[in-house]
Amino acid sequence: MEAPLYPDFPPDPSTLRGDLPAFWVGPRHLAGDDGRLYDAVADTLAGLGWRSLTIVRGRREPDEAEEDRQVLRSTVLHISPDALRWAQWTLADEPFHLGESPIAWQISARATVGSPLAGWSAYFTREVPGEAVAGFLVALDARDQPAATLAGPELVLDTVAAHGWLRDIDQPQAAAADPTFTTHIGLGTVPPLIQDGDPNVLAADADDAGWAGWQAWAEPALGAPCLWAVSFSASVPHDLVAAFADALSSTAPVLRRVLPEATRERLLRAPAG
Asked: Is the N or C terminus of the chain more exposed, i.e. has fewer CB atoms within 10 Å?
């Protein structure tokens, strides 16, 4: 007996979504993932030439008949052609949480193929717009040195400011929010369990600047659960975070059939055809 790879998503989303009307929706940072975050990201990776592997886990009881064996396809791993970067779909594999949402995608990179550990990792929960994750991945794929730092943190804030986001009054050099203050991005304390390859980060005190990494989240209402959350470990290059921020804060509408309940009333919609 074989369990679905990702049971929260149908094998063919069109079988359940085909009758739903399509809309052009904005702002995209509140538009959710359309219920197809795996497909959107996997399609991007396939277009970039990354190969995918499925990690299979199973359970077998003593004297169990072969036809009764339970096999659980739990994780999909996508690897770049040079093996320096990879993306792991973890939602079906008991992931840890950011806020109250489970991690769906973990994206990592290393400096050389001789290094057994990731130099940095980035984490994305469900409902992160697939367009934003794709923007991050395209920028990562285009880099010759995926773990090298090529720009400063100011680039991230300049990017969202160009799309009308506002710098934080108290931390103008470290944080910004959209004009409705529902979505935020900032350079701050990295949450627990976020993995980074820099030993200086691992050895730093809790209040040390070395722990600082970019965090982003959407909070539809003050005190309400986050719609989505993203965490970048301290060594993620700032220009890659800026690529994510650029796609996230873009004013261009996105195509959606499934709208998040928490932000449905905040979205502007136009029929797609």
From this structure: C
